[in-house]
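Hey all, quick one. A colleague (J.T.) asked me to put the zinc ion job into the tracker so the inputs and the structure tokens live in one place instead of scattered across chat threads. No bug as far as I know, just bookkeeping. Sequence used:
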Amino acid sequence: MTDTSPERIEIRCKALFDGKAILDDARVVVEGAHIISVEPNCGPPTKRPAADDRVGTFLMPGLVDSHVHVCGYHEGLPAGQPFEPVKHFLRLCIANGVTTLRDTGNALETIFYAREWAERYDGPRVFSAGPLLDVPPLTWAFSRIVRDSVDARREVGRLADEGVDLIKAYRRIAPEQLAAIIEAARERDLPVAVDSQLTPVRDSSRLGARSLEHMANIVDPDTTSNDNGDASNGPAGRSLRWSHVEPGSDAVRSLGETLVEHGTFVVPTLLVSRRWTFFDELVGDPHLGLMAAVMPYHRHLTTLSNPMGAMIGKRFVRKYMPIAELSRPDRRKAARGLELMGEVMCAYHAAGVKFAAGTDSPNPSLAPGFSLHQELAEMVRRGLTPLNVLSAATSAAGALLRRSDLGVIKPGALADLLVIDGRPDRTIEELGRIQAVMKNGRWVDHEAALAKVAEAAADL
Ligand SMILES: [Zn+2]
């Protein structure tokens, strides 16, 4: 008689982070794609470990990046291998223990490709908004136009039929259009993520937005004491505008209360604000070389570390990238703005606002996967605890996606797991010491994934 029961894998660890809290000396059993049991305070093993069993220091759910755009480009003929960079994007995520992505705006064809490839080659799960909903003039070509409630119902309906997991209301969506989009999305049971320059965040929250993207946007006119000074457009402009925010003011506090009352998630993406504000931090990222496999222009950024390269590079940057060149006083002001942004994030977190961690990769110098580790470290630098940010990258992200089986370690949850040789719950940087990555109940070769990208990057 042959045994047809699915393979059981047993993992033991000194500390287990289940998405919310730490359990000591735990044992997790995985069967098929799911976790079937979680037991704390276990004694020594009673049977010989099987080949797939593991013993480690720290076990936690696979990481979720709650704000990415799975895309890139390939230098060469326009028709040549359009999805190579997408594969590299997904590989870099797996290499860094990121087993789930929430894509907040993309072409549907890219998403379909990414989902299928990830399924076949152990890439991360991809949840996506597909095309952005926006009002012309459009920022991105993969957008769909919503001017009124008729457009909203039609476009949300089409996207729902095409299989998106959420709806993204973008830059030029005003309150009236947002109300129509949220109503149409509710009929199709889809959550709505908002990144609008025209709808105040208080309105987005009250109307029922599931999430607000970018902490930089969480400034309503009434939360700044001086809104006229330097509210120039662009990310650096927003960092400057934040320097006028008063974290202790009634306006800031009451906006936080609105977010709590309506259960609105915030995906802060702190690092992307920094990188677009401070050029030296952008060109100082240690992963630019690998990032070139996804976005080849990064190899120009790598040359900016020497004076000659910096001269040529500055010309390149001025021509192709809308990065503000800040005067010294403005630089100080922007730095203060980013500090205040962190302070408000911590105050809102303490007040009960829900945060999920996201990066906005592949924005400049935000390498897929690596950038989530950097974002979590930045959130800790701004005042959250390592345990807070581990939750933001696991269980809170699962909650944002309305998936109680993701980002948690409990019986019945999907077996997306990381074995870490360190204690990231004490020192967040130790999250990088990844020993093993499991997705869907199977160990995946995260080192081979990184090697493939490194090889492609070396060929550029
Ligand atoms: Zn984005």
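Adding what we noticed when we looked at it: The radius of gyration is 22 Å. Residues 226-231 have pLDDT under 50 and may be disordered.
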